[in-house]
């Protein structure tokens, strides 16, 4: 079997067994929890600046959707700036924890939903974000979800979606196991974007150093796009 595929299968089995796919903070004390929220706020602040400088779109008075929101670190930061936010995830346990986090922060403009209800939200959001989620989803199913997310965006809406790419490496190992769960082809994704009427998009490639390699290896990307 292809060695990359073998690692993908190994890691996705491990993730199912150990809940590796997410972060839980219920057991943390208030300071440690605040540090998690603060990371969410910083991430959303940097993202908002990038979105505004590249597309002119601002978060304020818009509706956002975070696909695979986990415990809501980014949703809660978005909720402090957007009119409303939908936080979707496949895990009921994670959504219940996200709801508790929102209550702790007195945030009430968020709706937490099972990811299977995505299509109900078509045409109801101006911003779609998803970070560190698609590697948990088998690539063809992930492509279908990606297209659904883009199709459901309102006109002039913006997307920022993180994907893992297949590393062009002969050597694979544990340092790559996170990214090797499932990977996406930029050719196929750009065709999906074009099919939804989006021809201009920006790709921020994320590289990581690999021991012994002369240059970082680019195996993750965050795509930024705006609907006409
Ligand atoms: C690594 S966490 C990332 C959470 C959050 N996006 C963040 O950046 O902190 C991955 C999340 O994706 C969710 N997930 C995995 N497969 C999913 C699917 N098919 N649909 C929706 N969410 C999924 C997991 O339950 C988990 O909460």
List the domain count as a whole number: 1
Query: Percent helix among the residues?
Result: 25-40%
CA-based shape: globular
Shape-level CATH architecture:
3-Layer(aba) Sandwich
Bound ions, cofactors and other small molecules, one mention each? S-adenosylmethionine
Provide the gyration radius in Å.
17 Å
Order of helices and strands: HHEHEHEEHEHEE
Highest CATH level, the class: Alpha Beta
Strand content: 15-25%
Mean pLDDT: 87
Q: Looking at this structure, what is the CATH superfamily? A: Vaccinia Virus protein VP39
Which parts are unreliable, with pLDDT below 50 for 5 consecutive residues or more?
A: none
> Span from first to last CA?
43 Å
Number of strands: 7
Widest sheet, order of strands: 3-2-1-4-5-7-6
Plain-language structure description:
- By secondary structure, the chain is α/β, with parallel strands linked by helices.
- The chain has 6 helices and 7 strands; from the N terminus they run ααβαβαββαβαββ.
- The protein has a 7-stranded mixed sheet.
- α2 crosses α3 and α5 packs parallel to α6 (186-195).
- The longest helix is centred in the N-terminal third of the chain and has 26 residues, at 30-55.
- The structure holds S-adenosylmethionine (SAM).
């Amino acid at each position: 079997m292809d060695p990359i595929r073998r690692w993908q299968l190994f890691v996705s089995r491990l993730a199912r067994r150990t809940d590796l796919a997410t972060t839980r903070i219920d057991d943390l004390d208030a300071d440690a929890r605040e540090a998690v929220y603060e990371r969410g706020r910083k991430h959303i602040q940097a993202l908002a600046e990038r979105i505004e400088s590249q597309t002119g779109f601002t978060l304020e008075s818009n509706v956002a959707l975070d696909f695979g929101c986990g415990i809501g670190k980014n949703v809660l930061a978005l909720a402090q700036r957007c009119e409303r936010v939908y936080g979707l995830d496949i895990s009921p346990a994670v959504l219940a924890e996200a709801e508790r986090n929102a209550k702790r922060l007195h945030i009430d403009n968020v709706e937490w939903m099972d990811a299977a209800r995505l299509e109900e939200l078509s045409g109801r959001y101006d911003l779609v974000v998803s970070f560190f989620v698609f590697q948990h989803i088998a690539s063809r199913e992930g492509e279908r979800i990606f297209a659904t997310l883009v199709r459901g965006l309102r006109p002039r809406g913006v997307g920022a979606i993180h994907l893992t790419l297949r590393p062009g490496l002969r050597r694979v190992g544990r340092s790559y196991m996170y990214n090797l769960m499932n990977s996406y082809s930029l050719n196929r994704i750009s065709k999906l974007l074009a099919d939804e009427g989006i021809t201009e998009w920006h790709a921020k490639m994320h590289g990581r150093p690999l021991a012994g390699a002369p240059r970082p290896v680019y195996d993750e990307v965050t795509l930024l796009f705006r609907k006409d």
